[in-house]
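batch_manifest entry 22 of 60
target: Large ribosomal subunit protein bL21
source organism: Candidatus Kinetoplastidibacterium crithidiae TCC036E
requested by: lab member K.T.
priority: normal
notes from requester: please return tokens only, no post-processing; we will run our own comparison against the previous entry in this batch. if the run fails, retry once and flag.
--- input ---
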Amino acid sequence: MYAVIKTGGKQYRITTGQKIKIEQIPADIGQEIVIDQVLLLESDEKVTIGTPTVLGATVKATILAQGKHDKIKIFKIRRRKHYQKHQGHRQKYSEIIIKEICTN
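--- output ---
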């Protein structure tokens, strides 16, 4: 059984027991969250595609950690103009473990 969920503007293919890093969710470590934007659900060779989401389908997950990814360095230059710009960015994430995929 697997599902495709949408969170943080991105889509993830998940299964029960899987650990994934998603865009940061404002919740405490150890707290259980419910994701209700399930776009596709597959169980026993039966595929249900939502329009846009599957009605009544939810995913229960637990937050394991909050953190930041590695720094991305951004460097812009224009030749012969003496223009250089240095910038960096660290994206925040929440690491979750999928506990259960609930159908309607």
